[in-house]
Amino acid sequence: MFNVLLVEDDIAFNKMLETFLTKKGFHVTATFSIEAARKELKSATHDLVLTDLRLPDGEGTVLLSEVKLLKTAIPIIMMTNYSDVKTAVEAMKKGAYDYVSKPFRPDEIIAVIDSALKPSKPEVSAKIATSSGKRATLIEGKSEASKRLSEFIRLVAPTDMSVLIWGESGTGKEYVAKAIHDKSLRAQHPFVAVDCGAIPRAIAASEFFGHVKGSFTGATMDKIGHFEAANKGTLFLDEVGNLSYENQINLLRALQERKVKPVGSTMEISVDIRVIAATNEDLGQAVKEGKFREDLYHRLNEFIIEVPKLYDRQQDVLLFANHFLQSANDQLDKNIAGFSEEVIEIFNNYNWPGNIREMGNLIKRATLLEKGNIITTEALPRELLRYGELNAQEQLLSKHDNEKQMILKAMEKTRFNKTKAAKILGVDRKTLYNKIKQYDLKF
Ligand SMILES: Nc1ncnc2c1ncn2[C@@H]1O[C@H](COP(=O)(O)OP(=O)(O)OP(=O)(O)O)[C@@H](O)[C@H]1O
């Protein structure tokens, strides 16, 4: 029997989930806060953590970092509201197994839990420093934004310029970095990706520059740092805005001198690397606020590339969707042929706050859930359907040039009862409220 640690502060929802999962054969320990979950994690073994993102004593991501620090392979599934999808997608990058947005269907949560507990599933852990072997297919896209992106990659790749890649989480910044490396003269040499946000401050110097055996407690053998590992190739610094000020200084020195000294060594090693950095923060602003060193900023930013949001790559939505469907079919040994018209329409209208990563995740789950031979709305999260409906309603309403007049009439007719007026107009209350605000109507 698998042990599930449930962390959810909504009492009714907590109870409901506990009962449901117990019925499905899980042993559930229900907690309501991070603090209580922390105690449970210390006192018993769990096979899976199912946690809400927003808890009374902090964010579920705190729990995620703590579990990851324990270096256990317990999969963590985050439960979120629609407005938090972006945070949840970021949490996946930090090592969460998956997320489900509330409200979810019972089969949806069971599918995610089952897949997380499958023994064959390799642990999805935060990439601390991987010599990235990403050989996945790169979709270039046909939209104007994608064409511009490809053009920038093509132009900058053969140079040795430092590139700063900026874009929202999940837009494909690491993919862009890898594409630059693959098209560069360094392509035959290593591409080393380092998640600067995941390196504990105390060991950052050893991670970047290596150390010699015996230089500190725990240094039981010589270790090569990322700079040396990337020699002749490309060093990709992901989430560069997360580096501590002290580490920024060390990094700048190494980049300027092109030499590194491993911790505990007296010898300097020359390195020949190209640096590509990525961030989803406004680093220029961080410089103004004194959080990021200006000299390092300029050193990294010889050429800047902005990776567009998926929403701004409208023409590519289906291209990406088909690509993810194909890889989900391969991974899950399924043979789903495509998407229903309705699903395509929803995909085209949805705003994808978690960008390409969100789409990949969503399609993989839909592929797992779908029982027929094409993906239908049945396999999509409810929130996505709701978003589609709202959008359709808004479009319907805005088609009328005289929508302000229509609203006024409906309100008069219903003696200013917004619920009834919304019904007459064929929209829901929220849309009506938004329109009232938009037209600055005083009721
Ligand atoms: N051009 C692309 N072609 C195919 N898949 C892509 C492409 N870009 C991104 N992806 C997919 O999206 C996922 C997220 O990409 P990536 O990790 O590069 O994003 P990111 O912008 O670096 O995210 P973060 O800011 O959270 O680090 C990848 O795992 C991959 O599945």
UniProtKB/TrEMBL annotation:
Keyword entries, A-Z: ATP-binding, Nucleotide-binding, Phosphoprotein, Transcription, Transcription regulation
Source organism phylogeny: Bacteria, Pseudomonadati, Bacteroidota, Flavobacteriia, Flavobacteriales
InterPro entries named in the record: AAA+_ATPase, AAA_lid_NorR, CheY-like_superfamily, Homeodomain-like_sf, HTH_Fis, P-loop_NTPase, Sig_transdc_resp-reg_receiver, Sigma_54_int
Name the record gives this protein: Sigma-54-dependent transcriptional regulator
Pfam families xrefs: AAA_lid_14, HTH_8, Response_reg, Sigma54_activat
UniProt xrefs under PROSITE patterns: RESPONSE_REGULATORY (PS50110), SIGMA54_INTERACT_1 (PS00675), SIGMA54_INTERACT_2 (PS00676), SIGMA54_INTERACT_4 (PS50045)
Residue stretches making up the Sigma-54 factor interaction domain: 139-368
Residue ranges annotated for the Response regulatory domain, each copy included: 3-117
